[in-house]
C-alpha cells in the first residue's frame, strides 16, 4: 500500500452560493452525472439489455407470427400495423420496472446513503434515474421501429405524425417511471420491487387495446380496457402512425401522462425524503 | 483545542413494525485532528449516530455540529466538509473504480478539470491503479473497501466518518486499511470511526466511547478502558459444571475482578497474566481439579461489555430490534485469541 499522508487543504470546489441560478445549474449538472452513471450501468447489466432489446423483439415475433393470424384487426388493416404501436407502449411500460429495481438496489446497497451525505442536489437521484430511463426508452423505440420495419410495419401518416406518436409514448413512459420510482422506494429490496411491479403492469398492458381489439373482451372489462392509460396511449399512437381521428386520443393520453406526473412526482419525492 | 465534531444529547427513535430507540441521549466531542472510536455491538446505535452526524438522518432531539456547523440547519455546508465510508461499501458495482471516483468528484462539485486528476491520485494512493479501469464486480472485498474509502476522500474532507471500515475483511486487508487511516490522520484529518473490534479501536483511536442501547456507557482512552478491565483474560474450561462451580472461587481469589461462570467455562480478568495463571493452576491442583482447557487472552469487546454492564454483548440484528438471547455465544471475531 503506497498511502501517503496528504496534508493538502480542501480543494476549492465551486462556491456554494445560494443563488437560484447557481442552484438550478448544479441541480442540472448533478442530474446529468447521475443519469450518465445509470446509463453506463444499464449497458453493463446483461439482464437490463435483455429486457430492453431481446424481450420486446420476442413479443413482436410472437404476436406477429404466432398469435397474429388469429386476431382480426378492426377496419381490415394489416395486424402488424395494428400491433406495433401496442408493442411500443408495452415495451416502455415493461421497461419502467427497471426504475423501481434500480432505485431499490441503490437503497439496498447503500449508494443512496452516500449520495445523501454529498453536497449534491437532493433532486438529482430521482431525476437522474428517470432521465436515464427516458434515454433508454428513446433507444428502445428506435430499435423497435427498425424491428417493426423488418416484420412489415408500414406507418402511413408521415414522419411528423410518427414522431408525435413517439413523443407521446416517451411522455407516458416518463410518467410511469415516477410511479415505479415510488414502488422502488417503498420496497425492502430489488427482488420485492420487481415482484410488486408486475401485478400492476400485467393488467395495464394486456387488458388493453395493445394486442387485441377491446370489443373482443367481455363487456365488464371493456370500460377499463378502453380508457386506461396504456390503451388510450396506444390508440393515440395508432391514429398518429397509421391514420384515424387523432385529437381526442392524443388529448386523453397527454392528460393521463400529465395527470400521472403531477401525482406521482411529488409522491416519489416524498417517499425519497422520508425513507430512512 | 476546538472540537471538530460535537454531539449533544442525540435522540432518535425509529417507528415502524417495531419501535426501536436507536439513540437515547448520546453526547461526545471529538478534538480536531484526532481519531475517535465509537465502540459497540450490532444494534447499539453506532451507525445511527454516524447517520445523524453526516446529515443523512435528522435527530428527534438534541443537536450536533461538525466544525461548528449544525448538521440540521447547515446540512449543505456540513456535506462539503465531510467524507463518509460505510460498512456496506457504498460504491457502484457497475462502474469502474475510476468512474466511481469521478462521479463522486462531480457530485462534490469539484472543478471539472481537477476531477480526473484527483481520481488518478487516489487510485495510486490506494493501490488500485492497475484495477482502476475494471468494473467493480471484479474487485475483491478488500479492494472494494479501499475504493469506498477513496471515494470518501475525493473532496479532501477535513472530517472523515468511517462506519465499521473493516468489518468482514481478512486480517491482511484490515491491516492495509488501518495503515491508510493512520496516514490520513497524520495528514491532519479528524476521524470518527465505529467498530465492533476492541483491537481496531485500540490501534487507531485516541479516545473511545463505548455505546450500548443508544447510550454512551464508558468513555476514555483505550489505555484507561483497558486498565479498568485488566490487561488479560484468564479462561479455564472444565469437564463439567460442578468443577466449574468449584473453580469459580479460585479465580475470584485472584482479584480484584470477579470471575464469571458460563456453563463449563470460568473466566476472570487479571492484571498479571502469567502470575495469575501460576496461582490458579497451583490452587486447582490442590483441589484435585484438572482443567480441560486453560487460556490467557487479550480482552475482547465482549469482555469490555461484561466488565461495564455485567452482561455479554447481545447478537442483535442490524435493524437494532432487540432479541435477547442470554448465554448466546459471544462473537469471536476481532480480539486476539
Percentage beta strand of chain A: under 5%
Task: Tally the helices of chain A.
Answer: 11
Summed up, the helix count of chain B is: 11
Uncertain spans of chain A: 1-15
Main beta-sheet strand count, sense and barrel state of chain B: 6 strands, mixed
Folded structure, characterized:
- The complex is a heterodimer of chains A (276) and B (337).
- Chain A has one domain (48-110, 134-274).
- With 276 residues, chain A is mainly alpha-helical.
- In chain A, α1 packs across α6 and α2 (46-67) runs antiparallel to α3 (79-95).
- Chain A has 11 helices and no strands.
- Chain B is of the alpha/beta class and 337 residues long.
- Chain B folds into 2 domains: 3-221, P-loop containing nucleotide triphosphate hydrolases (Rossmann fold), CATH 3.40.50; 232-297, 2-Layer Sandwich (Alpha-Beta Plaits), CATH 3.30.70.
- Chain B contains 11 helices and 14 strands.
- Chain B has helices at residues 46-53, 75-81, 97-107, 112-125, 141-153, 171-186, 198-204, 222-229, 241-252, 273-286, 301-309; strands at 3-14, 20-31, 35-39, 61-66, 69-70, 82-85, 159-163, 190-195, 207-212, 215-220, 232-237, 260-262, 265-270, 293-297.
- In chain B, the strands form 3 sheets. Chain B has a 6-stranded mixed β-sheet with strand order 6-7-8-3-9-10, sandwiched between helices. Chain B has a 4-stranded antiparallel β-sheet with strand order 2-1-4-5, with helices on one face.
- In chain B, a hairpin with a 2-residue loop joins β12 (260-262) and β13 (265-270).
- In chain B, 50% of the residues are buried.
- Residues 315-337 of chain B have low confidence and may be disordered.
- The chains are: A mainly alpha (276), B alpha/beta (337).
Task: Describe the SSE topology.
The complex is a heterodimer of chains A (276) and B (337).
Chain A: H1 20-44, H2 46-67, H3 79-95, H4 97-109, H5 111-116, H6 124-150, H7 159-186, H8 190-206, H9 219-227, H10 229-242, H11 247-274
Helix pairs in contact in A: 1-6, 2-3, 2-6, 3-6, 3-7, 3-8, 3-10, 4-6, 4-7, 4-8, 6-7, 7-8, 7-10, 7-11, 10-11
Chain B: E1 3-14, E2 20-31, E3 35-39, H1 46-53, E4 61-66, E5 69-70, H2 75-81, E6 82-85, H3 97-107, H4 112-125, H5 141-153, E7 159-163, H6 171-186, E8 190-195, H7 198-204, E9 207-212, E10 215-220, H8 222-229, E11 232-237, H9 241-252, E12 260-262, E13 265-270, H10 273-286, E14 293-297, H11 301-309
Parallel strand pairs in B: 3-8, 3-9, 6-7, 7-8
Antiparallel strand pairs in B: 1-2, 1-4, 4-5, 9-10, 11-13, 11-14, 12-13
Helix pairs in contact in B: 3-4, 3-5
